[in-house]
Every structure is written in C-alpha cells, then in structure tokens.
Amino acid sequence: MEDSDQQSGAFIFSNDDLLTEILLRLPVKSILRFKSVSKHWSWLLSHRHFTHRYDNDNLSKSLGLYAGNIYVPFDSEDRSAPSFRGFIEASCNGLLLCHSGDDHNHIYYVYNPTTKNIATIPSVPKDQNIFMFMGLAFHQTDFLHYKVVRVSWLPYAFLVHVYSSDTGKWKLSVERFSISSGCIIRKGVYLNGVVHWALTHGKLLSYNIEVEKLHMLNYPVDNEIRYFGESRGRLHLVVAPLSKLHLTMYEILRDRSGWFVKYQVQLDGLPDMTNLSCYDFNVIDVVRGEKEEDTFMLLSILGKFIKYNLHHKSFKLIFSFPGEKMYIWSESHRYMPILSSIPSARL
Are 55 and 46 in contact (CB under 8 A)? Predict the structure, then answer.
C-alpha cells in the first residue's frame, strides 16, 4: 500500500498539469509557502499560465480591507496583515495605489501586497492645476497592464490625465468636463474599463478610459450618499435620508442607464444603533458573496466595524478600534489576493 501511495505521489509531483489543478484550489498563503519547496515548484507557481488562472478564479474574493494602517479581515480570526507601504490612495482588484513623501512631493507607486511586487509611477507633467483625484484601473480580463487616472482642476473645467504601464507615459485626455462650482469629486470606482465618480451635486460621472468619453447619470434620489463602490462586477450606491437610520442600496443597470433598488436596510434594530443618529455611523463597504445570501454591508459605528448580512439581516462585530470609541471610520481600501506580477514603469 505504501509503495502504491508513493507511486501515486510521485506521479502527481511529476505531472505539472495535474499538480497545477491541485494547487489552484489552495489559499494564497499556501501558494506563497509552496514556492520554497523546490526550484521547479517556484517556477511553476510564478509562471504566468498559473498566476493568470489563479487570479481569474479568485479575483472576486475579498478577504478584508485596510482602514488606515490597520488590516481588518472579513471572516478569518487571523489578523496578520498583508503588508503595504506608505499611504494608500486607492485599491483596485488586488493592487494598491500608494504614495510616500511630504505634501509637496508625493512619490506614487503601485503595490501588490500579496507578492510585495512594486512599480513606481513617474510624475505627471508639471502644471498649475489643483490636484483633485488619483485612482487606479486594473482588471486582468480588461488589460494586463494597470492604468492610473489623475483628475485636476483649472478654472471652469476638470482635466483628466491617464498613465499606462504599457507605454510608461502620461497622456492628457481630449475630454474635459465642467461641473457646478463647489462640486466635490468623491471616491473613484473602476469597473469594466470605466472609472466612475459620485459627485456631490446629485450626479454620477463616468469616464471610459479606452475611448476617452464622459457620461453623466443622475442619482436615483436626492438623499445623502453613505457609500459608493463595486463588488463582483456590480456598481452600488447607498443613500439615507437625513436624521433617519434607514438605508437604501441601489444597483446600476448593466447599460448604466439607470438604477434599481437592491436592498432596504433598517438599522434601528441593531443593538449598537440604540439612541444613535444618522451621523454616528458610516457604510464602509458592500461585498457581494458568491451566493446572494453571503452578501454583506460593513458598518463603522463609534469605533467598531459591524458586518451586517443583507440577506439574513444578521450582524456580527468583527473589529473594535482600541481607544477609538467615538471614532467613525470613513475611508477604507479592500484587499483581494492576486499572484500576478505588476509590470515596472518605463522610466
């Protein structure tokens, strides 16, 4: 029996196709550890054929998020954080856009916290415009190279610069857009070749990176925006009437022509919401599960992160910030493990 087992093991280890099918089913921590088994395993697990398949199978699996310099896992009790450097500006499908340096001299770079692969971004051409937004665009099914989108303001218009790791250069878009005075550009969200911004004046602004075209869409209602983001290829907007603890989660139609109501959430019943107002919490993230019943909303309530299942209407405390009992978190960046190396900028 032992000889048979040894022969079976030897057959598996010598058959790259069979070995690949087995390794594709392992968590990313095991993959990284198994790279040290042998030079051949290191080559196999680093080869684009393997990393591309692994990432495509796992690209929608969100494991946690970064709240500042704190990593918060959604489910696991293991709070050991995937490393990151500097200050996180944006996240997109497993990559982080970070910066270091002082307020007047930021150095930007794209970083994969899973593999610790890093690529520096060359500075955008100098101008006198006021910086407004810097975001990241990356998805393996769209293009292998990442892109960085920068929005700056000059009187009466906004300019869009796009950096591509394929060319190693910044390009000024032919499109400019004008919006009302005092309008603020909120967090940018990348999906299907398009960067979307939720503006403060009741409109969603979308920019198609490839064809350099802008599109504007009204919000479904005139309520305060509590969250804007993407999960599993769906764009979500969460709004709430002022002075109420009632949330409505909208999802955009496939053709981006309008919205429909996905969930209604009444927060009065949560123990941590007793005697609280709408100003005492924030919606941090909405994460779609592989199954609809696994979809949840992450809430920041006075120093705590509450995971609220939108299907079962159940909740779970997953993190408390030490010494921050009154703090309401507003900014976070989702972590999704990917193995692909990111191309270095052509400096």
Answer: no
Asked if the structure places residue 256 within a domain, the reply is: yes
DSSP 258-315: -EEEEEEEE-TTSGGGTT--GGGEEEEEEE--SSGGG-EEEEEETTEEEEEETTT--E
Q: What are the two backbone dihedrals, phi and then psi, of residue 123, each rounded to the nearest 5 degrees?
A: -65, 145
Residues in the chain: 347
**Is residue 122 scored above 60 in pLDDT?**
yes
Residue 162: CATH number of its domain: 2.120.10
101/24 same-domain check: no
Q: Are residues 81 and 28 in the same domain?
A: no
Domain count, the chain: 2
Look up residue 139 and give its two tokens.
Answer: 């998805």
Mean pLDDT in residue range 201-208: 83
The number of beta carbons lying within 10 Å of the beta carbon of residue 29 is 13
3-state secondary structure of 77: coil
Answer yes or no: is pLDDT of 126 > 60. yes
Q: 258-308, pLDDT tens digit by residue?
A: 899 999 988 776 766 667 666 778 899 999 988 889 999 998 887 888 899
Query: Considering the chain, what is the average pLDDT of its residues?
Result: 80
Helix (H, G, I), strand (E, B) or coil at 237: strand
**Helices 39-46 and 48-58: crossing angle, nearest 10°?**
50
Q: How many CB atoms lie within 10 A of CB 52?
A: 15
Name the residue range of residue 25's domain.
2-46
For the record, the structure tokens of 129 come out as: 């415009």
Residue 340 lies in a domain: no
pLDDT digits (tens, 9 = 90+) for 63-82: 899 887 788 888 876 666 67
- The candidate with the shortest Cα–Cα distance to 194, out of 215, 213, 209, is 209
**Mean pLDDT across the stretch 204-208?**
87
